[in-house]
Amino acid sequence: MPSSFSNLDKVFWDKSENRPKLTKKDLIEYYNKISEYLLPYLRDRPLSSSRYPNGIQGKHFYHNRDKEKPDFAQSANIYSKSKEGIINYIICNNKDTLLWLANLGCLEMHHWYSRVNELHAYENKTVDQEKCGLNTPDFMVFDLDPYIYSGKEKKGRMNQYTTSMHLKLQLMLHIA
Prior knowledge:
Elements: E1 11-13, E2 22-23, H1 24-42, E3 46-51, E4 61-63, E5 74-80, E6 85-91, H2 95-103, E7 106-111, H3 129-132, E8 139-144, E9 169-174
Helix pairs in contact: 1-2
């Protein structure tokens, strides 16, 4: 592992009945192994993430802008109507960026469903969403969250489900 990684022995997932504890090093090694399969889906897409710097049991926060990033990490300045300002989104186009994100504790990565076409043309400029392709998605996700019923619900009401009972199925489709 390169020396730029830190706290590799930090536990990110506690030991469970079915597996040993998993550390930040395990996460980085996993992303390293799957990078060739994951990177084509992330290529040229603005990225937001949830960072868990102290593992899954620790506090986490939403991360979608980066003022300080390594030279190998690309980004795009995109205007946000809701924030009324420019957000500098990370674009994960290479393995080094993916492993850097893992080292930051980015356990959840949420990419846009469209791409910044000709990203190099927008270096140090604000992306024109109409011209660059961000208004033309090429990816779709159906996120199905079935509820588990106990039989004690009032008619027409859903049971409150917990994370341990929650089942999530994602169906991803490429458009084009």
